[in-house]
């Protein structure tokens, strides 16, 4: 049996620090005295470890093995520890040398508390989604031909003074993976769509097309010749082809974290800048299953002016249609002025396919989808087929279509009408282009040549539409001034989506949780690698001599990881809504990239901590530093390098595996550090001799954590572990192993309870498993979930909605509160959460579906894996004056920090055993912590314009978090303060110098001229800003 050792680390340095502060010393093993016996030690865990190492080697060759690896890793991670303490060292001395003592009370600038404490006042013309949910009855009456809507009528003379302007926008929705993998779709469909596009758009300059997924576009670009590329450039210059959004994918908006949302947007926009010089103006999101204001904010920060959304609850659409509020300025709940506004168009009907985009009657609109002409592969389910347009029928056909356009137009405030023309993977064959474009052109020609119809119809791009819309309302082309014809301002989000009846799309908040966790693991490692890599490049430049550091190879690994992570943000990837083998393809990419970014981390850390840079050498087969997670210690003393990837100094737990209980941990100056040695358990029965009864396992007052299991068939096995650094209770049920762990350490991790649930429902039929946490908080029907880890959205449990409608996405946290306390559950993976009763939280851990849900996938979800879900439960006394009705809420500083610690653990690397140990030194690029509310989202090396490798610049992305001061700031052990949003980077840097810094838009598309001192960065609360940075 192997033994794990836990000890506290005092991050001696600040901001992405590589701390060479801990020497791990192993006493020589005395085999004869080892009570556990060597044979068992080298037993299961060692075999498992060897198996994982072996599987990792095989990974590149054999993707099918990925499934086994995942389960093995989880088994390894989830082994349980018992408590023995060894040895009792002189910790107070050793500990304190590395960090100055933290103040008992966290110093927060009083001005920084005003943002969250302000009183809420609703804008006079504002639409607040929480109010809309209160108002709607969700009764779903039959609306006639527009089933979810109402009859629309109009007068023939309504357009006599101002003609109806119709923009028919051809589009093809290309999922980067769903029923097929990304590569298979590309091979079978997407490349043909793009190839035909070049030919068919050139045939007639009136034809238009939009494209949004750069993952596909860039793959195609790599495969076409320079002549075709020139043709594409001409199409873009002439305005026939528009890139909409321009992200790597069309991301899911529920499960995605804003780190990854930004990263995939930057990857897409950087690709466009390098290859096409294109700056997207308009967002296009027709298929994500519900919409988040976070994406609206990110698009606005990236410099986009307009956006379109589609999948919104049918009752909301109907209400907005009746109020003519389907077009609005989307404003962030927390925004005190109009700076976050972005013009948004919400599509009114059921779907983005042709039957649901020309007007309210799908039976009619389907007749204008000319891919469904008789004799083709698809037809109209309403049983009236399209007719090819001829001189004989053009009058009747044009009038029929115009009737739909006019009715649709009645749902909007202007005479400008949008009619998308496309569907999934459309325009694959040349004949389909001819069918759509030729027949529509005949209809347009007829309409436009008959002035008595008062219509001007044409193909357009999505920005053509918005440009005409802005013109008709007196708005300027890009700005947000409302103009003569006021559009409403809307705040809030569009979860939880229902497409019909009580079919709420909340299952995907949890589906395939294993991969949702894997996504966060890659995010955290990618960020850690990006930051270290950028610092290493700057450090090497300063060093000024040729060396062995693999700058270009590492950049390639980072690029591939960015793209694999970006791909997984797609709305059929992180959502868990793809076919089984597509899921395996995504998982393989994520896993592969986790291994690769670890290589970037160890090779960069090696450079940074090396005392004599001349001795650096790069040997990927035998690196000097090795990730501890896949390493077993043996019999000699080992050195450990610990990297703190967060931007504040911290004290945190580190876990390593050793082969003997006789160990000591020394810090950099040779003092013994307190450590707790515990057994590792391979299964429940193995630990049977050590089973204890639970006796007040958690000392957290007025909270109990209970498991909610549908039918526990057996009494659980309970194990209690006590120790000086942590104590835990592990309860094993049929489907779940539930661990509650308390840390007895000063600081953030000592202030909350760690929860780990290992869930296994592989043998079940149509099963969902949930964790329910009950408290005596009087939270009534109100609770709070985050959106994309960026902001908090207040929620209300509504009795008028079915159970499944009351679940919301939980990307980073959910909380409950009453006047005296707040209970927050922080999560390390996206899951669905609810509060079905006052004081209660429910989180779905996993779900298993034996049948299809009739949304096109054609299968259930049966590929469940053993999944470890991790959480932190934080109870805080509350003295906040936050109004109960306010549509915004903010976590405390402690809550923000606890989330950071959970999702960005310290990264430990062992120095490999070799004859000559290199001489290492701590590396601290910053002289102090970043402000408590300032988060370094990323420090991302920018690709060189000429070569494939990195340029000398990096994108510095900062986020100033909104936080609520109405909570205790005592004993957080944090060494940061707040600074009214100001960071003086030059003063913070230790060895590196700021060569240049330029404010740019979020994805670096636009450069801003700023009169302000470029050295001093200043952010408003909630703001995310990007700077183009050069360090040397
Ligand atoms: Zn899709």
Features of the shown structure:
1032 residues; alpha+beta; nine-stranded antiparallel sheet; six-stranded antiparallel sheet; 21 helices; 27% helix; globular; disordered N terminus; binds zinc ion
The major beta sheet can be summarized as: 9 strands, antiparallel
In total, the number of strands is 44
Structural class: alpha+beta
Ligand list? zinc ion
DSSP helix fraction: 25-40%
Query: How far apart, in Å, are the first and last alpha carbons?
Result: 49 Å
Strand order in space, largest sheet: 25-26-27-28-37-34-33-30-31
Rg, rounded, reads: 29 Å
Task: Please mark out the parts with pLDDT under 50 across 5 or more consecutive residues, or reply none.
Answer: 1-45, 54-97, 687-712
Measured by DSSP, the beta-strand proportion falls in 15-25%
Number of helices: 21
The general outline is globular
Mean pLDDT: 85
